[in-house]
Amino acid sequence: MMKRVFVYEYLSGGGWSDYGDDTAADELLPLGLSMRDAIVADLLRVRDCSVSAATCVPVNTLPAGVVPLRPLAGESAFAFVARQSALHDLVWLVAPETDGLLSRFQRTVGDARWLGCSAEAIELTAGKHATLAHLAAHGVPTPLAFEHAPEVQRWVVKPDDGAGGVATHVHTSRAAAVEEQTRRAQAGAAVTLEPWIEGEALSLSLLCVAQNAEMLSVNRQRIALDAQGRLSFEGVTVDALGRDDPRWHALAALAAQVVRAIPGLHGFAGIDLVWHPQRGPVAIEVNPRVTCAYVGLSAALGRNLAAELVASRLHGDAEDGELARAHA
Predict the structure, then answer these.
(1) Which position has the higher pLDDT, 48 or 165?
(2) Top-level class of domain 3-115
């Protein structure tokens, strides 16, 4: 039986024009497009699966074989998604957690059609500081453990619900960081201040299905700092650390800790972390959705990850027949 899957990436699906921060939207749009197209490419190789995807006038190119869908004139993003979700069997949605967007979309679609994390997990991980406090309470190493560490030389100020390194600044004195935090808070921004963790920036890609979480890959994040301390995200090297890397088991243990601490992680999720040279893995944030590391991951692993997720969602078993093995 043909299954209809609707893929909605917020910015390329029309949210680009009303995100509220043009600079952030311009920075995040290419990342959103790459994730959307990677998801769509995998879904197109799933047998008995019809794929639709949202697009808009400035971003109107989709891979061949995908049914393009656009909002009606004056239709809000949430009304559009609600209308389309009622016409599809499953909805795979990518949106930033900023301003509660992802959580609101989850509640708009509802559990029956949603391919992703629970509303509770999304709401918990939307706030960076709250996430760190929750993880720390469950024994996960976080920057909060470095608050009074004498070796800390830098501090980072960033949006508490931001994405992609937008509006993130690193300071060489705590006083300067506090000053920026105060200034931005007085302007109405929700920002958080943390010790900057020295080490290698990594991320973990997880597939959480049938109450099991698999660490698919360890990825290397390419992060740059300019002379003024402005941080920029320059991409990710997917599957950068092999399973024979001596750090693999410690990273897998961290992933298991995070999943136990946030039981609502379903489908794809990501963990950003830093490998500290003395203390090992330190969790920075949890992304309750597809991340940039999804792009190219199926090819790197020789699997069709979208097929596995759809099979698990429909049948409760990621190994279910030909669907999960469709043209990897």
Answers:
(1) 48
(2) alpha beta
As a whole number of angstroms, the distance between CA 22 and CA 27 comes to 9
Ramachandran angles phi, psi of 244, nearest 5° = -90, 0
What tokens were used for 21? 């921060």
**Over the range 279-309, which residues count as b (16 or more CB within 10 Å of their CB) and which as e?**
ebbbbbbbbbbbbbbbbebbbbbebbbbbbb
Strands 155-159 vs 169-171: parallel, antiparallel or unpaired: antiparallel
Looking at residues 60-65, what average pLDDT do you find? 85
b/e burial code for range 107-140 (CB count within 10 A of at least 16 → b): ebbeeebbbbbbbebbbbbbbbbebbebbbeeeb
d(CA 26, CA 15): 11
User: What's the CATH number for 117-288?
Assistant: 3.30.470.20
Q: What's the one-letter identity of residue 299?
A: A
Query: Which ranges of 99-173 does DSSP label H, i.e. alpha helix?
Result: 101-109, 119-126, 128-137
Which ranges in the chain are annotated with CATH 3.30.470.20? 117-288
Rounded percentage of the chain residues whose pLDDT exceeds 90 = 80
Helix (H/G/I), strand (E/B), else coil: 289: coil
The structure's pTM equals: 0.92
Please check whether residue 122 is in contact with residue 103, taking contact to mean a CB–CB distance below 8 angstroms: yes
C-alpha to C-alpha distance for 10 and 105, rounded to whole angstroms: 10
**In the chain, ranges of CATH 3.40.50.11770 domains:** 3-115
